Amino acid sequence: METRKVAVITGASQGIGAGLVDGYRKLGYAVVANSRSIAPSEDFDLVTVAGDISDPEVAERVIATAVERFGRVDTLVNNAGIFIAKPFADYTQEDYDNALRVNLGGFFHISQKAMANMVERGSGHVVNITTTLVENANSNVPSALASLTKGGLASVVKSLAIEYAARGVRVNAVSPGIIKTPLHAEETHDAYGALHPVGRMGTIDDVVHGVLYLEQARFVTGEFLHVDGGQSAGN
User: Fold this and answer.
1) Alpha-carbon torsion 180, 41, 210, 150, what sign?
2) What are the residue boundaries of the structural domains of the chain, listed by start?
3) Which of 156, 170, 162 is nearest to 220 (CA)?
4) Would you give the end-to-end CA distance of the chain in angstroms?
5) What tens digit of pLDDT does each residue of 142-162 get?
6) Checking phi first, is residue 151 left (phi over 0); if not, alpha (psi -120 to 50) or beta?
7) Considering the domain 6-227 in this protein, what is its CATH number?
8) DSSP per-residue codes, 79-144
9) HSE-up of 94 (CA within 13 Å, CB side)?
10) Each residue's pLDDT tens digit, 202-221
């Protein structure tokens, strides 16, 4: 069990997170998957840990489960997040608190625990899922609160990549465009697709392939991979 590579994935019960679980399992990794309401798993090499990842005790339990069950943590994908699209003046205190708690707290606590384990073994990989709106704002999608919080995940990538490079730990990010997930009703797909130069929304597989590329690109760290249908290139 010590030689089996292990990925920890947050926000893993549906959408991109569930796709990432499948992608890493197909790559041969054991997976520890977390979300607030994730169901138990019958797959020996897939362990689920339910709980709010912004809670430091939950974050500690997720990493402890990976180490106790599989002996290590090789990859952490910080996928958990919330996206609230509103005009800036309409955000409530609750919106603000929830976005900071999940998008930043949900990254901070578990990343500290995971990276400590990676440093002990001299290797590891952290991937943050952000949004291309951080770099390419769009008046059709008012998203200042997402930019404030997911922007934090983006800005920390280079800092951590440099801090941990000599210790064998890589840190990267994937910046998706608007992805077809249960969050977006089908009647919105055409309108959202038109916001991308390629003329369509992204798929969960598009994001998964991007993350798995970075997983296998051993010489890549501090990188932002845009999986956004050309949004980052221009309009």
Assistant:
1) positive
2) 6-227
3) 170
4) 49
5) 889 999 999 999 999 999 999
6) alpha
7) 3.40.50.720
8) ---------GGG--HHHHHHHIIIIIIHHHHHHHHHHHHHHHHT-EEEEEE--GGGTS--TTS--H
9) 0
10) 999 999 999 999 999 999 99
